[in-house]
Amino acid sequence: MTFKSDIQIAREASKRPIQEIGQKLGISSDDLLPYGHDKAKVSQKFINSVQDRPDGKLILVTAINPTPAGEGKTTTTVGLGDGLNRIGKNAAVCIREASLGPNFGMKGGAAGGGYAQIVPMEEMNLHFTGDFHAITSAHNLLSAMIDNHIYWGNALEIDLRRVVWRRVVDMNDRALRQITASLGGVSNGFPREAGFDITVASEVMAILCLAKDLNDLQKRLGDMIVAYTRERKPIYARDIKADGAMTVLLKDAMQPNLVQTLENNPAFVHGGPFANIAHGCNSVIATTTALKLADYVVTEAGFGADLGAEKFLNIKCRKAGLAPSCVVVVATVRAMKMNGGVAKADLGAENVDAVQAGCPNLGRHIENLKSFGVPVVVAINHFVTDTDAEVQAVKDYVASQGAEAVLSRHWELGSAGSAELAEKVVETIDKDQADFATLYPDAMPLADKINTIATKIYRADGAVMDQKILNQLKDWEEQGYGDLPVCMAKTQYSFTTDPEARGAPTGFTIPVREVRLSAGAGFVVAICGEIMTMPGLPRVPSAENIRLNDIGDVEGLF
């Protein structure tokens, strides 16, 4: 049996003018800033006008640890949103924007798949409304102003060895991880070591996704630490006098983007911090706006629940005052078999024993999420090779964990295939009252917060930090940053820092290689294992297969 590609399905979509989509949420045409016919930004004036409305129910979609077999978290997020609308609920979807780096690298796009997609798929996965370009420009404006300040006399007495602000580009480019800047003589400045991160790892991205409005945005930008003096005194972006101009560059990017699903239901697509480097959630302003306009809001957290959901709950919810009413964990039979030791080439053959052997990865995520006080539903994202016995094995295992699993066929059937999942989610919200609480209190010491996540979420024996890192954390506490949450930067493929350690491993530690203070975003980043803040391209990048065909349509996006 052959199936249409995602891009074929998206191109055949019967899209409605974006003004009609806005009307479904009570947004008038005057409050939409159109980018063509099928996407628009929602004005800050309108957002301000709905703040006195009650909030709808927030549903978080997360997943098991990703495998090459595929899980379909975004696809399930979109499918559930469509399913809720199909059963008569007023629902909206909130997801992140796509980064060009993974799109041209290995991961592909970020608009869902099959008949559970957000459109326009091509624009969303390419330049969209220019938000990422604005973030890149604002970030690099600050970089230029730091070096310019040093060139014209360095009145702030910045220590060139302690400039911590790197540059960014929205592309996977390992050659830029570590560079030497300002070579070429006196007129080019003072040579120093520098480097690039990918745009989605920028603190500016994290700030845009956590800021409540433009005033909050500028304050947070000003709070960013960019360098230190020889006496270790921090130098802030406001000391460089860059925060105002950066805010100007981000003025339009701060407004959420409204688009639609294949079934013409509203979707907010805004912001996109990496989930294994940053906090991995769409913007607070998009989520909180959607909650004022819809009775149910379906959003997602990046990668597996050990990274994405943990950060959504401990960082985004803590900072924005959000509390999910239900969490949906996405799993596939194929991924269970891979966690159970089956090679990717052999996933098509029925293997109930392997499914059962791989289920402990799912079980650990269920248990972790329940510890936050939220009810859990498991969505089994259906693949055509799944057998009834394998699906039943997952359902039986989930039942043994005190939860319920629902087979969802949204990829193949759209909302007709996700209506049962939607019914179960609504039933769960109505029946099981959430009692959400974060994993650790603000007042816990930073090192203890890192250890708490390592032991309670990853189930490690502990986090390993040398004295230099412990001293750095203690210094930040003394400077008034001790109440910040921690953002763990770790491989997404495992509970450990070893991407090959599948399942639910025990008897390991989490090595913390480096810690970084994101004072503007409001969290401390703990870089664990070999994780990179600038990814590289794979041996055969997706870009090799992306092109325009003879009639000018894009081919190769997925």
Layout of helices and strands:
Layout: H1 6-11, H2 18-24, E1 32-34, E2 40-42, H3 44-49, E3 57-63, H4 73-86, E4 91-95, H5 100-104, E5 112-113, E6 116-119, H6 121-125, H7 131-151, E7 158-163, E8 167-169, E9 179-181, E10 192-194, E11 196-198, H8 203-210, H9 214-223, E12 225-229, E13 234-236, H10 243-250, E14 257-261, E15 266-269, H11 284-293, E16 296-300, H12 305-320, E17 326-331, H13 333-339, H14 352-370, E18 376-381, H15 388-400, E19 404-408, H16 410-413, H17 415-431, H18 446-456, E20 463-464, H19 467-481, E21 486-489, E22 510-518, E23 523-528, E24 547-548, E25 554-555
Parallel strand pairs: 3-16, 3-17, 4-15, 4-16, 8-11, 17-18, 18-19, 20-22, 21-23
Antiparallel strand pairs: 1-2, 2-14, 5-6, 6-14, 7-12, 9-10, 12-13, 14-15, 22-23, 24-25
Helix pairs in contact: 4-17, 7-8, 7-10, 9-10, 13-14, 14-15
Number of strands: 25
Give the radius of gyration: 23 Å
The assigned structural class equals alpha/beta
Mean pLDDT: 95
Percent of residues in β-strands: 15-25%
Helicity, in percent? 25-40%
Distance between the termini: 19 Å
Largest sheet entry: 12 strands, mixed
Please mark out the parts with pLDDT under 50 across 5 or more consecutive residues, or reply none: none
Per the principal axes of the C-alpha atoms, what is the gross shape?
globular
Count of separate DSSP helical elements: 19
InterPro entries: Formate_THF_ligase (IPR000559), Formate_THF_ligase_CS (IPR020628), P-loop_NTPase (IPR027417)
Catalytic activity: (6S)-5,6,7,8-tetrahydrofolate + formate + ATP = (6R)-10-formyltetrahydrofolate + ADP + phosphate
Keywords: ATP-binding, Ligase, Nucleotide-binding, One-carbon metabolism
Pathway: One-carbon metabolism; tetrahydrofolate interconversion
